[in-house]
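Weekly sync, protein design subgroup
Attendees: M.S., D.O., the rotation student, P.L. (late)

Item 1: inverse folding check
M.S. brought a backbone from last month's batch and wanted to see whether the design step gives back something sensible before we order anything. D.O. pointed out we never logged the input encoding, so this time it goes straight into the notes. C-alpha cells as presented (500 positions):
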C-alpha cells in the first residue's frame, strides 16, 4: 500500500494440491480434534490430520486471521514431513500456505525461502509447466509486491501467466488472477497502459466466470481504480473503489483487511477534494488493519502517513505529527534493503542461476546465499541484476547500512536492491569462492573452485578506499576490511553491498 494504492490489493493463491477446505470452521476443528485423539498415529492418520489442519488454516486465512493460521500450518508441515518425508508434494503445498501467512503478517524474509523451497519440490514432482508451479510463481510476485520491490516481482508474475496460459488456456479464471497480479506490479512501476489492459481483460474473465459480485471482481476493480486515478479519471476511480468495497464487505465481511485496502485507496483519492470524508475513511481503514494485521504492520504505518497528510490539510498539525512519528517507528522495524523501506524477501530468481541456491541465516552477516547442490569450478553461478542507475542517483542511494550497488564503469551502476536476482544477498569474504566478471555489460558471479552442497557463497566486495568497511568474514587470511587492497582484480568491477 502506498500513497497511491494498497500494497496487497492482489490475492495470494493457496497450494494447488490442497483439497477444497471444509465449508465450516467448526466442522473442521471437530475433525482435527478427533484425529488428534487417535493413538498410535499411523502414517495414514497423520496425513489425514495434516490435511485437516491445512483446511483449517485455509479457512482462517479466508477470514483474514493470518496470525491464527500460522501455527496451524506449522503443525501441518511438521506432521507431513514426519509422515511423508521432507520432499513430499503435500509438504510443498503446506509450505506455500505457511508462506502466505508470513506475507500477510509482513514477515517477508520468512516467506521468501519457504516459497522457493516449495517451488523446487513442486517443479520436481509436477514438472515445470504445471498449474501448481504457476501458483508459487504467482505468490512470489505477490510477496515482492507486498514488500514494495515491484520490478523484482515482475518476472515471477510474468512466468506465472505464461505457465498457466499454456496449462489451462487464456480464458481460465486462474489465468485472470495471474494477469491481475502482474498488472499490480506494473502499475506501481507506472506502466499504466499494459496494467490497465491486463486488469480489464482479467475483469471480463472473472465477471463471465463468477458473476459481478465475486471477490476477484473486487480485486480487479480496486487495482483498476488506482490506474484510473493515476491517469486523471477521478470519477471512474471513485465508482470502482466504492463498488469494490461493497463487494468485499458482502463477500468477506466489513472487518476484513482487503476491505481496509480499498477504503485506504478511496481515502487517498478523496483527500484533496473532500478531506473530511477522506479522514473518516482512513479511520475506518486503520481500525480494520489494526484488528486484522496487528498494530505494527507496515500497512498500518502507511495508512497512518496518509491519514496524517489529511489531518494537516484540516489544520490538525499536532495530531498529524504524532501519527507520522508512529508510522516512522513502525516502518523503521522493517528488514529493508534501502532507505525507502523496501522489504528483504530472501528470494532467488531461478531464471538467473543454473543451480539450486537458498537464502538463509549466515554466520558472516544476517543472511547469505548457500548452495543446495555441488557447484563445479569455473561455472557461472548467478547473474547480478538490478536497476541500472547513473552516478548521481547512486550517490543519493549510497548508505553504508543499505548498499547493494555494483559499479559497471565510471558512470553506470547496478542497484541490486531493486529488481535484483538474489545475488545481492551474497556476503563478502577475504577468501571468496566466487569471482565477479563483467561480460558484455552483464555481471556474472563465477565459481573459483568446487563448492560443496551447504557451503555459503561469498565474493570479495573490494569497496573503494574512501570509507573503511570492517570485515567479519572469519577467513584465515582475513585482511580486516572489505575495501580493495593493492592491485585491482582484472574485470571485477566494484561491488557496493549492504554489509556492516
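Designed sequence read out in the meeting:
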Amino acid at each position: 500500500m502506498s500513497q497511491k494504492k494498497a500494497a496487497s490489493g492482489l490475492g495470494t493463491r493457496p497450494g494447488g494440491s490442497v483439497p477444497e477446505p471444509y465449508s465450516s470452521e467448526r466442522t473442521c476443528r471437530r475433525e482435527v480434534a478427533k484425529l488428534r485423539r487417535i493413538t498410535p498415529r499411523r502414517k495414514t492418520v497423520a496425513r489425514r490430520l495434516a490435511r485437516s489442519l491445512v483446511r483449517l488454516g485455509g479457512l482462517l486465512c479466508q477470514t483474514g486471521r493470518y496470525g491464527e493460521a500460522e501455527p496451524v500450518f506449522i503443525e501441518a508441515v511438521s506432521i507431513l514431513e514426519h509422515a511423508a518425508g521432507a520432499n513430499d508434494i503435500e509438504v510443498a503445498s503446506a509450505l506455500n500456505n505457511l508462506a502466505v501467512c508470513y506475507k500477510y503478517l509482513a514477515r517477508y524474509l520468512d516467506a521468501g525461502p519457504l516459497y522457493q523451497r516449495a517451488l523446487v519440490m513442486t517443479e520436481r514432482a509436477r514438472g515445470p509447466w504445471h498449474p501448481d508451479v504457476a501458483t508459487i510463481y504467482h505468490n512470489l510476485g505477490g510477496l515482492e509486491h507486498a514488500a514494495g520491490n515491484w520490478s523484482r516481482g515482475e518476472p515471477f508474475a510474468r512466468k506465472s501467466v505464461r505457465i498457466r496460459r499454456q496449462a489451462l488456456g487464456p480464458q481460465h479464471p486462474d489465468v485472470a488472477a495471474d494477469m491481475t497480479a502482474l498488472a499490480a506490479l506494473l502499475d506501481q512501476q507506472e506502466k499504466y497502459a499494459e496494467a490497465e489492459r491486463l486488469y480489464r481483460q482479467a475483469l471480463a474473465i472473472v465477471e463471465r466466470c463468477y458473476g459481478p459480485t465475486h471477490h476477484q471482481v473486487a480485486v480487479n476493480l480496486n487495482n483498476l481504480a488506482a490506474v484510473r486515478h493515476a491517469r486523471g479519471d477521478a470519477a471512474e476511480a471513485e465508482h470502482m473503489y466504492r463498488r469494490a468495497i461493497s463487494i468485499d464487505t458482502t463477500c468477506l465481511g466489513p472487518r476484513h483487511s482487503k476491505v481496509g485496502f480499498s477504503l485506504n485507496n478511496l481515502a487517498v483519492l478523496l483527500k484533496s477534494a473532500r478531506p473530511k470524508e477522506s479522514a473518516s475513511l482512513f479511520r475506518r481503514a486503520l481500525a480494520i488493519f489494526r484488528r486484522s494485521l496487528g498494530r505494527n504492520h507496515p500497512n498500518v504505518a502507511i495508512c497512518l502517513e496518509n491519514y496524517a497528510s489529511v489531518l494537516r490539510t484540516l489544520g490538525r498539525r499536532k495530531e498529524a505529527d504524532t501519527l507520522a512519528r508512529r508510522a516512522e517507528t513502525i516502518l523503521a522495524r522493517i528488514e529493508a534493503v534501502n532507505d525507502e523501506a523496501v522489504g528483504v524477501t530472501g528470494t532467488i530468481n531461478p531464471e538467473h542461476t543454473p543451480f539450486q541456491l537458498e537464502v538463509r541465516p549466515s554466520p558472516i552477516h544476517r543472511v547469505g546465499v548457500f548452495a543446495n547442490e555441488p557447484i563445479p569450478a569455473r561455472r557461472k553461478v548467478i547473474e547480478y541484476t538490478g536497476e541500472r542507475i547513473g552516478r548521481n542517483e547512486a550517490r543519493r542511494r549510497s548508505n553504508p547500512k543499505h548498499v547493494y550497488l555494483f559499479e559497471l564503469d565510471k558512470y553506470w551502476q547496478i542497484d541490486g536492491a531493486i529488481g535484483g536476482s538474489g545475488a545481492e544477498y551474497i556476503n563478502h569474504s577475504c577468501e571468496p569462492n566466487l569471482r565477479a566478471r563483467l561480460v558484455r555489460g552483464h555481471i556474472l558471479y563465477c565459481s573459483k573452485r568446487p563448492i560443496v552442497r551447504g557451503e555459503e557463497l561469498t565474493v570479495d566486495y573490494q569497496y573503494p578506499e574512501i570509507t573503511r568497511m570492517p570485515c567479519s568474514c572469519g577467513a584465515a587470511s582475513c585482511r580486516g576490511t572489505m575495501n580493495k587492497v593493492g592491485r585491482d582484480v582484472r574485470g571485477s568491477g566494484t561491488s557496493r553491498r549492504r554489509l556492516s
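Discussion: Residues 1-10, 16-22, 487-495 have pLDDT under 50 and may be disordered. Residues 203 and 396 are 40 Å apart (CA to CA).
Action: P.L. to compare against the previous round before Friday.
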